[in-house]
Amino acid sequence: MAAGIAPPGPAAAAVEASRSSDESAKLVRQVGLAGVSNAVAASVTNPVDVLKVRMQLAGYGVASPHEPGGVLRAARRILHEEGAAGFYRGLSASLLREMSYSGIRMGMYEPVKEALGAGGRSPLALKVLAGGITGAAGSILANPLDLIKVRMQRAAGPPPYRSVADAVVQICREGAGVRSLWRGSAPTVKRAALLTASQVPTYDHAKHLVLDAGYMQEGYMCHFACCMVAGVVAAGVTSPVDLAKSRVMTQPVDPASGRGTLYAGTFDCLAQVARREGPQALFKGFNSQWLRIGPHTTSLSAVAPGAPASRSRARRGRVYLQGGRERPRGSSRSCASSSYGVWRA
Questions:
Q1: For position 149, what pLDDT does the model report?
Q2: What does residue 309 show for φ and ψ, rounded to 5 degrees?
């Protein structure tokens, strides 16, 4: 029998079933580990996420001339009025969101990329497309948890819901039934697509420049610096639609129709904000969004199993990952691994 050809009959079926079982187990493991890793990172950055939502909704931010001090002023107010616990509002919903949204966005990335025909050193466009697909899918699935998280974080005072389960019940009673849980899904999907399209290429290009110029060596300091650079670009690109997401999700709802009473959608919200508060208001919360994106991805790299350069290899000083392969430390060609550690070429 020729080498590499599976034996016919039941034996071949058993081999195929075993291979399929291994692939399914690997996929479940990838999704689970990605979700857990992001949940750990979200627990670190939740205070900044609360600041971002408050600034977008209450008028704080770099675009607001009425509240000098921006992030620090908002942080002092939360600490004074609510104590340290105020920075962890919505944490339960945030953790559940990351387990689902980021689990799919990251864990399904490699299979989707392979389904698109990406090989060992795939074009960056294919990686952005794969990330956009998985990001959109994850954001749609997790929109109810994102909605609950934003509403829990939006203001001081008694929590609007006793728990995530209570939030689901109350939101479904707003007039549109289960569909109410997907309020704000349009800007949520747009944000996920824009985040992928801006953050991943920026991180890759920044790392390429830093390594090629010899400013830094592969490792966590290089990863942190490139994450923060990518965070600036990603925050600038996604800030307007992220502001629309927060406002659409928290607007008053007409109980008869189940529709929001202030904004018809993403672009209507942005148009109203620009007209009433000025175009600069579209970037309210920019600083806090940047401060969340950079540290979130850096915190993730400390716990994610697929960090851009594995800690054991980095410590031995032998190789770093590039295009899914091992290359000498001195190689000048940039890897395309993302700030999340799974966007390998």
A1: 96
A2: -130, 120
Rg (CA), the chain: 22
Q: Spell out a b/e string for 91-101, using b for 16 or more CB atoms within 10 Å of the CB, else e.
A: bbbbbbbbbbb
Tell me how far apart the alpha carbons of residues 127 and 231 are, in angstroms, rounded to a whole number. 18
Q: How far apart are CA 329 and CA 211, in angstroms?
A: 10
3 state SS of 320: strand
CA–CA separation, 248 and 44 (whole Å): 26
3-state helix, strand, coil in the chain (%, to 5): 70, 5, 30
**Side-chain half-sphere CA neighbours of 8 within 13 A:** 2
Q: Tokens at residue 12, please?
A: 């071949």
Q: Which DSSP symbol is given to 83?
A: -
For the chain, counts of helices (H) and of strands (E): 13, 2
For range 51-64, the mean pLDDT: 69
Amino acid residing at 112: V
- pLDDT tens digits, residue range 264-306? 999 999 999 999 888 989 998 888 888 788 666 665 555 554 4
Which are the contacts of 329, defined by CB distance < 8 A and separation ≥ 6?
Answer: 217, 218, 317, 318, 319, 320
Contacts of 71 (CB under 8 A, 6+ apart): 51, 55, 60, 287, 288, 291
| Entry pTM | 0.77
Closest by CA position to 184, among listed 102, 80, 297, 260: 260
Alpha-carbon separation of residue 70 from 156, 198, 284, 298, 308 (angstroms):
18, 25, 9, 24, 33
